[in-house]
Amino acid sequence: MEPKPDTVKADYEFERPVVTFESVAAMGELANAQGKGHVWLVGAYSLNSMPLLENGVKSAIDVAARLGVDCSDVAFDEARAVAAQRKTGSRGMLLGTVVATIALAAVLRASRA
User: What are the structural domain ranges in the chain?
Assistant: First the structure.
C-alpha cells in the first residue's frame, strides 16, 4: 500500500555501493583526507571494507573519537556483534546497529552542548 501523496515529505532512490578496485583506491584517499579542512566523512562507503550499515556506524564512532568524544559506551564490538548475530539472527544485528546509531547521536549531541 502506497502512502498518501500529501503525507510524503521526500522521495529518494538509493543504490547499494559496489566495491571495485577504483572504489578501494578511493577509500584509501578518503582515509588520508579525513579531517583536512575540518571536513570529516562518515558512511558505509568510508571504510576499507564491505559497504554495510555496520561500517557506517563504525566510521561515525571513529570520527567522533578523533574529535575527542568518548565513545567507549557505544563502540562497535565486532566479537560481541557476531555472537549476538549467531544467537538472534540478522534481526538482532540490525537492532544493535540502530541502537548504536541512536546512542552515538546522543553522544554527539551532548558533546556539542
Answer: 5-112
